[in-house]
């Protein structure tokens, strides 16, 4: 048997597999950015959508783009590289972005549940409760508190002395880094448990409470009213269930010995929360705003001015530059 031919054939097949996976991943990244940007632009440009719920939805889409920046550029670079490495700073930066993204998503989903609760159970108080000032404060807290938690978690991990440098996942993950430590990790375990409890038990309990109140408030109303309420709340329920299941899979997997788990299953469970929610959220909520989207981009009702298109082009160029800069940072070139 010609072993040189076999090696060349295997190398060629590996290249084809890598190129196919690279193309599919790049397509996924492009679609995620495109569908989220479409929804963001629709909400920004249409005055009818300048309401608290749609503002929360807009920031949910912004957060989806922010989270994918932490995974896709580095993963795409790894697919084209023979050696998969990441700098020390880049690894912790990736941890910060990916896991602050999860916490921000949960926070925004809680806000959407609160908005629906006030709108349905206290409609006369809605404008005063969900004022512009309060909406601004709530959105700010949705980003500030997760950032503070993640800074605390990453700071504790930075104090550890590591005895290894091999990650068991496709991306840097805090618990995987902690398991590489040579010393005690009790502080990391306690803080990690507190953070997980805060962003799992409290959001689930609050959302369950709000929907119980909504169901009780609509129980005696007509079927038409119940249908409108269901139409208003169903996208949020779907988003919350999808995000809870996918993030729980990653959390549960992190506590397992990945050497005993099927590699294919481990990869799917570890990245599904990065891939599925950024797709599902804009598609599910897009059904609610599709008529506004169509109006914005038809000839008769197109009110987008030239300078707005220029601003949008500048934003796209800026986001591309940020992605490229982040990629270089992860590789240790910056």
UniProtKB/TrEMBL annotation:
Transmembrane segment boundaries: 21-45, 51-72, 136-160, 190-212, 264-285, 306-328
Domain G-protein coupled receptors family 1 profile stretches: 35-285
Topology of this chain in the membrane: Multi-pass membrane protein
Keywords (A to Z) from UniProt: Cell membrane, Disulfide bond, G-protein coupled receptor, Glycoprotein, Membrane, Olfaction, Receptor, Sensory transduction, Transducer, Transmembrane, Transmembrane helix
InterPro entries xrefs: GPCR1_Superfamily_Member (IPR052921), GPCR_Rhodpsn (IPR000276), GPCR_Rhodpsn_7TM (IPR017452), Olfact_rcpt (IPR000725)
Chief subcellular location: membrane
A GO CC term assigned to this protein in UniProt: plasma membrane
Compartments, record wording: Cell membrane
GO terms of molecular function: G protein-coupled receptor activity; odorant binding; olfactory receptor activity
Domain of life: Eukaryota
Stored PANTHER family: G_PROTEIN_RECEP_F1_2 DOMAIN-CONTAINING PROTEIN, ODORANT RECEPTOR-RELATED
Name of the molecule in the record: G-protein coupled receptors family 1 profile domain-containing protein
